[in-house]
Amino acid sequence: MHETVGAYALGILDDAEATAFEAHLATCDWCARQLDDLAGMEPMLAAIADLPGNQGTPAIGESLSTKPGSRLVEGLVGEVSERRARKRRRGFYLVAAAAALIIGGPLTALAVNGGGSGSADPTAAGPARAAFQAMTDKHAATDPNTKVDAVVAMEARHWGTDAVLQLKNVQGPLKCSLIAVGKNGERETVTSWAVPAWGYGRPDTTTDEAKNPLYVHGGAAFTPNQIDHFEVMTFDGKRLVKVNA
Fold this sequence. Notes:
Residues 54-68 and 89-124 have low confidence and may be disordered. The chain is built from 8 helices and 8 strands, in the order H-H-H-H-H-H-H-E-E-E-E-E-H-E-E-E. The chain has 245 residues and is of the alpha+beta class. The protein is globular. Helix 5 (70-89) packs antiparallel against helix 6. It has 2 domains: 2-103, no CATH class; 122-244, Immunoglobulin-like, CATH 2.60.40. The strands form 2 sheets. Strands 1-2-3-6 form a 4-stranded antiparallel sheet. The chain has a 4-stranded antiparallel sheet with strand order 5-4-7-8, with no helix packed on it.
């Protein structure tokens, strides 16, 4: 079902296929992120269709109800995926710019907590927390200086590594990323999020928003045995905690 996200983004699934994928999408954070990343694919396809030699696909301004050729679909999805993979390896500072250039939209990320007023959508917290609890391969660390506590749960997938971060004792406002660092030295951004002023997982507070840990769900192209460690980094380059894989 994960492999259907590209075809869904292009609008080439029939009604039954689209309905089945939408049911899957409601419970799959990974596919939701991929769909956001591929949001610009349909206008890109329309633009390519208007070039000489591509008369088999609709021209700009026409509907994409006529299915494009499979070779064009596979090539376009593959090109976007490959570009995103190359940019990810250059570091998380370049990812936002790369995403803007490739898909013409903002870099999106999903950050969820336990709910409550002023918090992220409480209905989105379930899948991330449930995935964290279901994964058995967990690695934990507490930074001696920042006191930030992190647990990274991960699981091998055919596309790389599915990862969920549980974060505690962090106070905002901050913007952060979870970075997977390979044994070869390459760095990949797993996911990014914002920490509100009250923070997450803080034992010294009386509010539910601040007491609850943060759960964020993401993925890396690395396989689990290729990952040396994870780092929780602020957008201004400060490392909050390092977790050995």
